[in-house]
Structure formats: structure tokens, C-alpha cells
Amino acid sequence: MLLMLRLLLSTLIVSSFLQANTDADMEAFLQKTFSANPNILKLDVKVHKKIKLEQVDGWSAFILNVDANVKDKEGSRDVNQKMIWFSNGTTISPDLIDMKTGTSLKDTVSPSFEDSHYKKQNLIYGNADATHKVAIFSDPLCPFCRDFVPKAIEQMKKDPKKFALYYYHLPLESLHPAAVTLVKAATAAELKGEKDVVLKLYKVEVDARESDESKILAAFNKSAKTNITLQDIKSKAVQEHFSSDIKIASDLMVNGTPTMFFDGKLDKTKVQYQKVK
Fold this sequence. Notes:
Layout: H1 2-9, E1 16-17, H2 23-34, E2 40-52, E3 60-72, E4 75-87, E5 91-93, E6 123-125, E7 132-138, H3 143-156, E8 163-169, H4 178-191, H5 197-201, H6 213-224, H7 230-233, H8 236-251, E9 259-262, E10 265-266
Parallel strand pairs: 7-8
Antiparallel strand pairs: 1-5, 2-3, 3-4, 4-5, 6-8, 7-9, 9-10
Helix pairs in contact: 4-6, 4-8
């Protein structure tokens, strides 16, 4: 994601003038401007959603789908992601900052959780038709996640008619490489019919920087009392589940953990579920 942003910014002055009153105007301007970068071999820019800003009169946030093929050391690679840009119809900017608080207005913009993102495979507790839908994106080796997520899950699982709890694996590989193998082991265990696997996942003791999959699996099996093998975590079903979670996170621009959505909207407070009566 950072690579794509650097490539795009290298071809665009932070504020450029245009008439971006429609989605088509925004798409055409960015398509033309970004395509001038020789490192971008192919590019397709589409507006996913336009959101009128309440904080700044006349400005809107554009959530964009960016599909590109960019040069790299091995030749080229595909990049698919969402980005946010702002426009007031005459000026475009990659960000707007509130001068009083120093807050980036990007933090106030988020794609909505679509019905298609609520997959049966991610429903870990509660009924699909429960009063409220809660989605959690988490890395089991994230320190804050280890403290917060199990407590939140334990509280919501007590009332299956009130909460449909959906869980999405989002290992932060650059920070916790061991988490990738761990979440695949958890998925494999669920496919074998093991119960409460996600909660067990947070009790595994392993060095977050460990890269030896055999050692990571040994730690998981010891804690979860399972017998997951390397072959299990490399199965097609596990890989598809893992890829699905990562894609959903990308669609929703989730890049940190834990991230929660409450009834389809990003819950920055992470306590909306506690306010339900």
C-alpha cells in the first residue's frame, strides 16, 4: 500500500486544480495524472464511494478502487487497493488536516461493511439474524489484541440473540511473522471441527518473530490441544479462508488491529457493543 501511495504522489502535486464535480471527473484526472508515472504499467481508477464531509464545507472524500500493475525488482506485480482523496470541485488533496486538533480527516472516512463481507465461515458466535452484527479484525500476537479481544468475545458470546460475532484473521506479518502460521493453524483446527479455536489462539505462547513453522505449530498444538500439521495449513480450504479475510480487510481499508465494525460502521471506540441494552 505504501509503495502504491509513493508512486502516485510522485506524479501529483499535493494540491492540483481541476473540476472534479463528478465521479467521472475524479477518475479521469487521477487516471491521466498517475499514468504519467513510468513505474505504473497499467492502471484503472474507479470511485467506490463519495462522502460529503461535515467538517469542511464544500469538500467531499472519494474512496477509490485502484487496480494497477507496477514495476518491481522481479519485473512487475499487481496492486489492488482502496485509497482516499479529497476534492472541493477545484482542488484535490491526498489528505486534509484539522488545524485545531491536528487530526487527519482520513481517519473519519471508512468504507461501509457490505452484506457480502458477512461470511458464514467468519461467524464464530451468535446467530446470523441477531439484533447486532459485530466484526473484529485481529492479530493474535498484537499485544492490545491479546488483552482486549478475548474479553470482548467472551462478553458477546453470552448473548447469541443479541450479537452475531464475525471474526477475521489479520496477521500483521511485518511485525509478527509468526501470526501468519498461527491463524492458518486456527483455521485448519476449525475446519476439523474444533470449538472455541479463536479464544484458544490468544493463549498460544510463541515468539512473535519466530519464522520456523514447525515450532509455531508445536506451540499452537500444545496450547489448543490439537494436532495440526504443515500439510493441514497448506490445504486449499485454509488458503482460501486466509485469502478471503485479507481481501475483506483490504476492501474495508483495515490495516491495524484490533479493528471493529458495529452494525456495518467502523467503531473507533471499540465499545459500542458494551452500550447495547
